[in-house]
Amino acid sequence: MTNTRLYTALNHYSKALEVLEESIGMKPADEESEISVPSPLEEKILSILLSRTSVDLVIKETPNPGKENLSTLIDLDKRLKQHNAIIHQCENLLDWRTSLKPSSEAWWWFPEPSKHRWDGRDWLWSFLTLVVLAAAFSLIANIAPRFLSGNPSIQGAFAVIAQSFIALLTAGSLLTNAGQKSIERALERLNIPNHFRAEVKFGLAILLLLGLIGFYSTLPWFAAEANRAGLADKSAGRFTSAQVKYEYAIRMSPDYSEAHFNLGSLYEDLQSFDEAQREYQIAVQGKLRNDNSSKLTFLKASNNLARLLILKKDYNRAVPFLGKALSFPGVGEDFGEPQNLCADKSTNCTKKVKYDLLKNLGWARLGQERFAEAEPILRAAILLDKDQVPAHCLLAQVRKGQGDKAGAIEEWKECRDMIKPDSEGLLNPDEDNWLSIAQQEIEKGGKK
């Protein structure tokens, strides 16, 4: 009885296959052609698949199906596999599988498409897809800590989370079994030929990487905005907030010299001289861009770094920084005055920087007791800006070192007379110190 059921099922399967072959001809579909399957033909294909499923159910219930029946089944299956290409092109195949939920062992519901000449390169596209995804995740690993460390902003955290979510979604779709099935279904619905699907997946990975590269390219903008916000906070006396902004700018763009310089200046105001020296050192060694802000940052950072070294009496290390800055093209010329470096717009910014560089170089030579070299350097500073006090005070010490007591007293008086309190009657720490030394030296000279 069971063999009779099997014979009947095989007979139905054979007739359904014959109907299909009569409709399309015995010749299998060209393996590189795109086949359009009309609705009547799809009905015949569905009939074959259902017939083959019926055969499978009967065989599972048949203890001894018999060699002849099995041989017949094998021959019929060979004929069915010859038409995999046209079955695979059925628009409703995916819907049939969704509704009937055949097991993965029912191979006839999952026909493998004929090999296309492009399929031979699928391994290359798959490998390149993995390489691109690895690059994308490396980029995310580089970007994420910059936004999420320290005091992350809501906007920055959201941007990183969104980028990571898109990356994980893309990688999951391309790498996991469930994801690959989902994307295969989507590509089928979009009528993307199977032999182009590896290339499409590679294209999706490339789009992800390009999006991340585009986002990465905006980091300097985030850095510049944070630096500007830090300057505003410092001007308003919000030093803690300014420090946070500068550090954020540096995370966004580690080689952003302006942010390093501004953070160093803030540390110096907070009397954290070692930290200030570190930031000035980074600013000096940073990549020099061909713009005025970058040039002035280099000059001012070199000057401030050298001054801190001089205060530590490390004159030998200070001199090279000053010498390199003074030999910088255009130093002393008015090549622009960015707001964040030149608060006083009534003066030539780079002229002021050159004065400071000459003054500090003269100071370093004084510390080295190289008085003959220090004197012309300080006189050059005085000629550049006669209204500045420090060069006169330093020249007084040079004169004293040279044994010219009268000349020293004359310069000390010049130093003393040029020091003027501000509108609130206050002096900055350097001028207060110079004034005290000048008065002591003048009094000692008068007694003698």
Structure in a nutshell:
With 448 residues, the chain is mainly α.
Describe the structure.
Helices cover about 70% and strands about 0% of the residues. The chain is rod-shaped, with a radius of gyration of 41 Å. Among the domains are: about 1-115, no CATH class; about 120-215. With about 450 residues, it is mostly helical. It has 20 helices and no strands.
Structural class: mainly alpha
Average pLDDT reading = 79
Whole-Å distance between the termini?
138 Å
DSSP helix count? 20
Low-confidence stretches: 27-34, 334-347
Main attributes of the structure:
rod-shaped; 20 helices; 0% strand; mainly alpha; 448 residues; single chain
List the helices and strands and how they pair.
Blueprint: H1 2-24, H2 39-60, H3 67-81, H4 84-88, H5 93-100, H6 122-148, H7 154-175, H8 177-189, H9 197-216, H10 219-235, H11 239-252, H12 257-269, H13 273-285, H14 292-311, H15 315-326, H16 349-367, H17 371-384, H18 390-401, H19 405-418, H20 429-447
Helix pairs in contact: 1-2, 1-3, 6-7, 6-9, 7-8, 7-9, 10-11, 10-12, 11-12, 12-13, 12-14, 13-14, 14-15, 14-16, 15-16, 16-17, 16-18, 17-18, 18-19, 19-20
